[in-house]
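ok trying again, last paste got cut off:
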Amino acid sequence: MTAIYPLLLKQLWHTPLANAADRSIIYRDRYRSSYRQTYARINRFAAALAASGAKRGDVIAVMDHDSHRYFECYFAIPMYGAVMMTVNSRLAPAQIAYTLNHSQATLLLLHTDFIPIIESIREQLVGIRKIIVLSDGDALPPTALSLDDEYEAWLKGRSDHFGFADFDENTRATVFYTTGTTGLPKGVFYTHRQLMLHTLAAGMALAAPARQQRFHAGDVYMPLTPMFHVHAWGIPYIATLLGVKQVYPGRYTAESLLRLIVQERVTFSHCVPTLLKMILAAAQAAGTDLRGWKVVVGGSALPRTLAKEALDMGIDCFAGYGLSETAPILTLAQSIEKPDGATPQADEDASTMQRCSAGRAIPLVDVQIVDATMQPQARDGSSNGEIAVRAPWLTQGYLKDSEASAALWQGGYLHTQDIGVMGADGYLRITDRLKDVIKVAGEWVSSLEVENVLASVAGVREVAVIGIPDARWGERPLALLTVDPELFDEAAAQQHIRSSISQGLISKHALLTQFRQVQGIAKTSVGKVDKKALRSEHGVAASLSPE
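nice, full thing came through this time. structure:
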């Protein structure tokens, strides 16, 4: 009988233990370890789970900042055969209670900073039997919670050699909850096989370019998207397979992130546009040189003005695209190279626009632009449709929600709810979310394209465009702007829109855009612009007069 080699997360450790065992894994300025030492701790973690009575299939919840402990959870829990549930600590307490109960979590690993939240909902948590507290060495705050152990004490004295067994690669490894803007959070889950295939395909895509926009074994990696969100885009798994030095930053502040980038010589990260903007501002204020830093930007569209600012500072930034339901990477905006290794010549604006597109599909991903009847649209760079995808690692549905799962996979493709176009070269451009597209006089106006135009207007710090009811046009765009009042001029913004229309960059109906200056723009728990909240706050038909 032929022995089966299952695709399990434990297999990712063979290469780094053989080739990079002494390379560092770091948490802020608090902790430095190696791959060899970390793997020993993962074994102790599994032994602690066994001693606590955990069984295969049990759901173990984690509520921590981005740390070496979280990294250990990424492996120890699923390698044991349990399911890692990552708690979104930025949700409202009632939503956190819902996700913990819905996932049927039985054990909670809890950072001291979040004790007050769990204390406020403890009576609602029907399944949690044990709480292991996570501390950065600080004194525990006074609490009425019953805490069963402290993480380091829990691991202490356990064996460094647990002996992880083989099991079915289709065993569930993780579950987390997507923070959609409608209804209750939905549980998204992945198997070992799915995570392994995503790791191999996304890792191959990131490592493929000969020069820029690549992630390779010589890099130093620091995630800048929360580890509770889609496995930090799955890149800690890729980083481990490559055996690179890894840096985990804890709580995000511009100053601490910038300090770690410089001190640890970080060369590869990923983040949402708002965080990149914050870091660039901090670097400019401090006179910090960020040349050589590579950053994948996702979660929201990468504005061309932000990309140009980063490029001018010597940062190799480029966009990626994916969803919670896709593990998440589907496409990357990496440059096309000729067979001789030369990059095709392009003017600066065209090159920046390419970096800001969603990019091309990574290996094994089938991306289609389809109409309402699932018919493929032409790949001509202008034919709009919904983006529908297939890949061997996409989630097969939502936890305990058969109706939403069926809608997600209607017609045999996963429906992204994003509208896009694709060129003959395979580059995908997102034009809007299906629910955010603005319908003016029966024609679609892309809120993202109008935002991109307005983001380059002098004095605009941040912009979000929403559709609001209009008696004459059905809907019209409303641009919500945070501005520098000394630099911003509304007439100049309107002229910039006219110029962009004449260049064919945006719809002529963008002329109907009205402007409203605001103090701030609402964000979701993972840093995306929350357009549902903005429509609720600003979308009042009576506030607009028809023209």
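cool. The longest helix spans residues 35-51. The chain has two domains: 9-339+347-420, 436-543.
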